[in-house]
Fold:
Amino acid sequence: MNPSDILTAAAERLAKEGWMQGAYCAIDRSLCHTTPDSIGPTDLTGAIRAVNGGWWNHESDDAKAEAKEAVRDAIGGGYLGDWNDEDGRTVEEVIGILKLAAERCKTERFPIVHVIGRRGAIHPGPTGGELRLL
Structure:
């Protein structure tokens, strides 16, 4: 899958399986990494990670990383989890931003970066990206 397809599938997944705030997925976090097709509701990042073979499909890491960068650009930068978890955020907004980013991926490229998120954890992307502190 290319980044546009991943984002479109993530939007469809949220519409079908449900959206949440506060965690990648609604079930025990360790299971999020092993059963991507049966995890139920997810947040924005969880939906991106769950499509196209799930969390540990490393063949799709570059496409997933570029998809997340397209979303980050569409929301004006920052940590995707913070944007997803903002008070008052709606599932319609999340699905809308995924669709917008998917359309933009059809005509634009989004360089992959390594992101240090709100908890100080490095969210590794594929090699060759830059390091961005948020």
Q: What stands out?
A: Confidence is low (pLDDT under 50) at residues 119-134. The longest strand covers residues 113-116. Residues 3-133 form one domain.
